[in-house]
Amino acid sequence: MHALDGVRVLDLGTYLAGPFCATVLGEFGAEIIKVERPTSGDNLRRFGSDTECGDTLVWLSEGRNKRSVTLNLADPRGRELLRELIQVCDIVVENFRPGVMERWGLGFDQIRELNERAIMLRVSAYGQEGPYRDRPGFARVAHGFSGLAYLAGEPDGPPVTPGSTSLADYMTGLYGVVGVLLALRARESTGRGQCVDLALYESVFRALDELAPAYQRTGYVRERMGADTVNVVPHSHYRAADGGWIAIACSNDDMFARLAEAMGQPELASAERFGPKAARLAHRDEVNDLVGAWVGGRTRDEVLERCHRSEVPAGPLNSIADIFDDPQYRARGTLVTVDSRIGPLTVPGVLPALSETPGEIRWLGAELGAHTTAVLAELLHLDAGKIGALRADGVI
């Protein structure tokens, strides 16, 4: 049993944000019907590292659990088949630029006429309203527009990408999951679906803690701080003697006192030195230099052992090679190895962990159109002759 058994999702999205929402729903039992263009398919099949099966590693991982159906939506017959599929689905996911679905006669009002219970998730760069609604955009643009990229980098250097260039896609996909689950819950009472509208930049902006209220109250414009954090110190990255990097996060006075004890310098946490947070903030560079010198005089593992013994929040800055060797990742199933069209493939596992109805990866990204015949026969009751004619005409 899965939490979303019986829920059917029509995934019309391309690349990542909308489709990632469908991916997560599929991990927990929803039936995902991935609609793609005949011949070329979703652009995600060519985004990332190429493989011998013709699809990228990104597709194989993120196309998990999806039934691939090809439809030529430029052909009226393809759009009619899509309308019929909408009538038997619970959720419709799309992330085209605003207006594309309307040009096909499949805006939310039209979808509601076809299926009053349908929930529509719409993801775009700037949302369905506003002066920028028609502008294209990807995650990198969203990182900049949201204010995140402005904060990433060293104080005297240029803004940099905050790790993954696809962060906004994944975050927005997760907000999409929240939105459609809320809409499913509301539908239990109302019997009606609703539209969930998300802009890529909004999910990232929502995660920037007190950035907005601080500016509104004081006019404070946060600038790049490298690895540091605005309101606490020491809360940064420090390099050990063997070249390894360590994150230390002392968010209050008690944590700093434990760190000072671990360092063998308990006097640093006295009221006369850096015990109060205000004193540490006023002497940020000096505090960071003291911690940095202590870390720099020891190996990474020695520092981590001392921090863990003193219950100081600290951890390594892992490379992917470190992650593959880490026992915590193994114990939690954060990495899983699944059979695929290119052999066993290790991919990120399923989140979150549910005790009674856990999610699972049933298969990785399917070949283009692998399920077209089965879906049209099962859901739309088309016979083999009709399906063969549609395929001959390039509709599927």
Automatic annotation (TrEMBL):
Q: Which Gene3D superfamilies match?
A: Crotonobetainyl-coa:carnitine coa-transferase, domain 1, formyl-coa transferase, domain 3
Protein's UniProt keywords contain Transferase? yes
Which InterPro entries does the UniProt entry name for this protein? CoA-transferase_III_domain, CoA-Trfase_fam_III, CoA-Trfase_III_dom3_sf, CoA-Trfase_III_dom_1_sf
Q: Record's SUPFAM superfamilies?
A: CoA-transferase family III (CaiB/BaiF)
One Gene Ontology MF term? transferase activity
Q: What is its EC number?
A: 2.8.3.-
Q: Tell me which Pfam families the record gives.
A: CoA_transf_3 (PF02515)
Q: Which UniProt keywords apply?
A: Transferase
Specify the taxonomic lineage. Answer: Bacteria, Bacillati, Actinomycetota, Actinomycetes, Mycobacteriales
PANTHER family in the cross-refs: SUCCINATE--HYDROXYMETHYLGLUTARATE COA-TRANSFERASE
Name of this protein: CoA transferase
Species whose genome carries this gene: Nocardia aurea
